Amino acid sequence: xxxSTARWRDICIGVALTGTLTVPAAAGSAYGAAVPVPxxxxxxxxxxxxxxxxxxxxxxxxxxxxxxxxxxxxQQVMKDANVPGVVVALSxxxxxxxxxxxxxxxxxxxxxxxxxxxxxIGSVTKTFTVTALLELVDQDKLGLDDPIGKYVSGVxxxxxxxxxxxxxxxxxxxxxxEDPDWFKAFSANPRRPFTxxxxxxxxxxxxxxxxxxxxxxxxNTNLILLGLVVEKAxxxxxQDFIAKNVVGPAGLRHTFLPTDAAFPRPHAQGYTNxxxxxxxxxxxxxxxxxxxxxxxxxxxxxxxxxxxxATGTLLTADTQKQRLDTLPTGVxxxxxxxxxxxxxxxxGHNGSLPGYETIVAYLPxxxxxxxxxxxxxxxxxxxxxxxxxxxxxxxxxxxxxVYDLPKPTEKKSxxxxxxxxxxxxxSKSASTPxxxxxSASASTPxxxxTSTPAxxxxxxxxxSSSP
Length: 467
Hints:
Blueprint: H1 64-81, E1 85-92, E2 96-106, E3 111-112, E4 118-120, H2 125-138, H3 163-167, H4 180-188, H5 196-204, H6 220-234, H7 238-247, E5 271-272, E6 279-280, H8 290-293, E7 296-298, H9 299-311, H10 317-323, E8 327-328, E9 334-336, E10 341-343, E11 346-353, E12 356-363, E13 368-374, H11 385-397
Antiparallel strand pairs: 1-2, 1-13, 2-3, 4-7, 5-6, 8-9, 9-10, 10-11, 11-12, 12-13
């Protein structure tokens, strides 16, 4: 099993794109394939809250020289972390844009990664679920300070835990994805479906970790509960509510919450070691993530969603203000609001599901957007590979606002926490082929690794051990 500290997963950012963007002259770099980036749909162009004017200082001009620096930094992370393929998109008004795909989408066929792949977005799903919840708040169909027990029965401390505390990750409920019995069921058959109630049952057999509001503790259980609240207050299945009230109004075309394991093409193959060996997780059933992590999207939609999420297009100004009121997490420079992170000034969310990781981030000071999509979730020294990319990229483009979610300090979990008994293991992954640029004419040799893959539950999106 991985250390409990290895479960600090999916800490991300919300992305936005504003205005017409210029493209640096180096768009045809030999390191990656440059692809024109579609403009966001008009439906998402008018936020209800005013975004700050670009200062011109927080985000660097995406010049040919900067593009070359980014190419080299991304390739180095790919090599160090044995990442098969990655897509990176950066842009800001007046600063140009950078769009590259590197490496391979399929290690067996050596098919190159492209920016047009569909992606399992993991915990970026949480931003959609919480947006749906907040829309219902704006419609006066529920209140953030309502107890969860008003909507779902059988929740430990259900008369005290509020919807706000669930969205803030301060409920004290154990994440079902920390439960050994859940992991046993998942690893025995990753293609099996789970119902929301089955997921809650894995959580509710454990005592709460702490009283509501005391501290931050990332728990997927919180979002399963909020998904059920949206269904009850919204009067329809969660996937339908999100499609009608979030995805549609945001102008998204390839984003949805699936009800099975179907994965539209084109998509990359996803590589994981979550069950204890290197496997292809492409067709695993994401139902275990449901409202917390099961959604699918693509690059164009994620860039649009970043702006909608960060500027509050779908919400009232007051509700958006509450959403962005972040509290300390104990994870580096990260704060957490209502289903949204602020990491070094970058706002949004990340996602990690077996085989895939995603960052969707927006820097309000410059109205800058960052989207990163990769086809592995294998940790590197207990750190998300997406974090390594985010850190390397932002050191170049926004050195005063670095996206960094460091390896947490080992802390003892409460005795009631299932993660407290998890033994340690090597955090390095099994060897994977070295990444190749999508514009390269031949593949490069693969670096090798002799370490053993970790065997533990797929670490939940966002941190789950006590800060």
